[in-house]
Amino acid sequence: MTLIAHITDLHLRPRGLTCYRFSDTNMLAERALGAVRALDPKVDALIVSGDLTDRDDPREYALARDLFSRFDRPIYLIPGNHDSSEGMRREMRDFPGMSETRDGKIFYSARIGSLRLIALDSHLSGQSQGELGDEQLAWLDRELGHDSTPTLIALHHPPALSGISHMDKIGLVDADALAEVVAPHAQVERLICGHLHRPIIAGFAGKIMTLAPSTGHQVVLDLSEHGPPMFNFEPPAYFLHYHSDKTGVVSHLAYVENFPGPHHFFADPGVTWPGDERG
């Protein structure tokens, strides 16, 4: 059994500052990481799919290093549009894959238990949109061609459209080229993304795309044609990707906050669960 947690869009700020005036992203990121650390069974690894920082500030990366230092499992990072490939490579150089750069981008593969992670860099300098580029796509094609291990592909910008118009305008510009690469490869179990600050599941190139919400603020669900860019404080959450030979990859949305419970379905006196000897 392999269990991987996926969080995204932390938007860390220098200590004492909030994001967009209202969002205490540092506190919310710390709570999310605490929730993942408390899981039982423990995860085998944590994937963070971009926007660790809000402004690519060395102080924000320093806070990320401090938060991640409390985690005793491997952590795999990729840059988002609010980070930069150069800044992440420089400030997070001790993390896996950060030295695996080509054409200025960070992309690499790693084995996590029974799964393979392929981490892609969709950061496009100076832009909110994302792009993988020909060199990275050619590398991905080679990687998928020689290893049939069940695979998760992580990238910040989702390749599938969401219907949230203002976010779709800043999506992945070479999504069609990515589709051509991944479509023939049956071992690609998930594409896991961030960027949209909402939990979204969609099909892409015959695969399943799971898009994790932010650990902080969320984008308002507005499917109208000209919906304005707005955010709110719907409950932060993350994805858990579970894999076994019997199940394949199963993806669970898990909430950061605690809620009332748990309660037994059968609470009447004298009713017991099978194997429960308490009576």
From TrEMBL:
Q: Which Gene Ontology molecular-function terms are recorded?
A: cyclic-nucleotide phosphodiesterase activity; metal ion binding
Pfam name, any one: Metallophos
Q: Does the keyword Ribosomal protein apply?
A: no
Alphabetical UniProt keywords: Hydrolase, Iron, Metal-binding
Q: Where is the Calcineurin-like phosphoesterase domain?
A: 4-199
The record ties this protein, via InterPro entries, to: Calcineurin-like_PHP, CNP_phosphodiesterase-III, GpdQ/CpdA-like, GpdQ_beta-strand, GpdQ_catalytic, Metallo-depent_PP-like
Q: Which family does it belong to?
A: Belongs to the cyclic nucleotide phosphodiesterase class-III family.
Q: What is this protein called?
A: Phosphodiesterase
